[in-house]
Amino acid sequence: MYSCHCTSFQYPGDVIPFVPLVSVLTTEECQVAVIQSEELLFGSVNQSLSIPCHVTVSACNGLINSSPMMVWYMFKKDSHSQLDLKSQPLKYRLETQHLSIHSLSADDNGVYYCAAILKTVSANKEKQAFGSGTTVTVKENSFTTGHMLLVMLLVLLMLYSLTILSFIVCIKTRGSTLFLQGRLRTSQIKSTSTRRVQFGAVVQELYTKRNLRSSNKTSPSEASPENKCETHRKKEERVTEDTTFK
């Protein structure tokens, strides 16, 4: 004969109730306790999750053939099944008594029960002791593919804006440079013309002063015709006076 201490568990809305769970199994003076310490665990898509389970065996006195064998059950709203740990080694892995689930997805939502199977020596029968169950909820990653596309679009838009801005700045800078070069060239031309005019004025002034000096310096052999006539008249008068006196 064996007896059990039963516990009940409150299920979330998407999981149907199950029969009362055996957390402690006593058979022929052999007692096995299965404890699932976490009632609710959250995971993210494509991540891993570990569901703890602890099994203790006491006062067996050689009444069981071997250590309890660990199995896991998964219950959903419309179905339940035993997890095939051997055929899906990449998905499920049993680490001592804990269950590790890899590459989480929305299909992994449900309640997971840890069970210890006992095989007695006298009756040669298997009996199971269940844990209280752990509810697993898988959440979508906050950074989804849509968010990634949006970020890429924003980055491309930013690069495009920077390219356009750089192009506009280059055009304005080039226009300003050409304008400054034109003004500088015009200023140089005006400066050159001014220097030429000033130089021409100086040369003209020097030339004029030179002509004035030349006209003021008149030699004796270069007497004017009036002076020559006056000299001739005076000579004639002198000759006339000499003739009269005689």
Automatic annotation (TrEMBL):
<keyword id="KW-1133">Transmembrane helix</keyword>
<feature type="transmembrane region" description="Helical">
    <location>
        <begin position="148"/>
        <end position="171"/>
    </location>
</feature>
<dbReference type="InterPro" id="IPR036179">
    <property type="entry name" value="Ig-like_dom_sf"/>
</dbReference>
<feature type="domain" description="Ig-like">
    <location>
        <begin position="20"/>
        <end position="116"/>
    </location>
</feature>
<feature type="compositionally biased region" description="Polar residues">
    <location>
        <begin position="213"/>
        <end position="224"/>
    </location>
</feature>
<feature type="compositionally biased region" description="Basic and acidic residues">
    <location>
        <begin position="225"/>
        <end position="246"/>
    </location>
</feature>
<dbReference type="InterPro" id="IPR007110">
    <property type="entry name" value="Ig-like_dom"/>
</dbReference>
<keyword id="KW-0472">Membrane</keyword>
<protein>
    <recommendedName>
        <fullName>Ig-like domain-containing protein</fullName>
    </recommendedName>
</protein>
<dbReference type="InterPro" id="IPR013783">
    <property type="entry name" value="Ig-like_fold"/>
</dbReference>
<keyword id="KW-0812">Transmembrane</keyword>
<feature type="region of interest" description="Disordered">
    <location>
        <begin position="212"/>
        <end position="246"/>
    </location>
</feature>
<dbReference type="InterPro" id="IPR003599">
    <property type="entry name" value="Ig_sub"/>
</dbReference>
<dbReference type="InterPro" id="IPR039089">
    <property type="entry name" value="IGSF6"/>
</dbReference>
